[in-house]
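Input chain follows. Return structure tokens only.
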Amino acid sequence: MDRFTLIVPIYSNVFEDQIRIFLSENIGDVIVVLTKEIDFSLNDDRVKVFKLYGAGYGKAVNYASKFTKKDYLIITNDDILFEADLFKRIKCLKDDIVVPLVKDKNKKDIESFGSKILFFYNILNKNINFDKRKLHLTGSFFIIKREIFENIRGFDEKYFMYYEDIDLSVRLKRRWKILFDENMVVFHKHSSSDLKNKRYFLQRNRLYFVLKNFDFKNLVLFAFIMIFVEPFVMAFQILKEKSFLPFKARYDFFKGMKNFLRK
């Protein structure tokens, strides 16, 4: 049963309680990537700890994946809590890629069951009856065969954070099937985060994602939206946030577009 490596990039939560739960199941080892100085004190031979300060989510996971030869990678954020029966289902896993149902820890409502693309935006899906063929994985928690993750070269690190998960999903779905399992449940407890940075990367990375992954027909439509709709959206965001970050996000993308789109 020693088939799994749990990979956790740590930004704000030490995650030690959840790691202990995983280790108690005796199904594999753990790789922790500290992306900033944080007091992580768990001492166990099955836990490797690396320091990669300033790394984005994708870079941290890609780096960790190089240090395991287990069959599966369990990739999770540091603000996820494991449901009681989670590992009973994981132990029987045979699928290539699995995405669970994510519930809000406090409200117990569905927070996400994969995500979907709507008008060139990545939107969390909360409907378990939505057509699963149109869903994409979410990076908060998913399980993937290591060989597949290596074959597709992991996350695109240019995103730094946000949209790297749906970018990975688009690439995966060209060759493999993603299973969305509503009976596999994890909880999200919402860690504190820098909202300004979050909004900046969401707005900047959406542009990169669209230009990288959409076909010519959709890009023509997107160009129309960028010229005639996007300025009004940006103005609304600037007024709402009382910040010029929405403008900076778009400016920074177009300023460095050659670097973004370089293979």
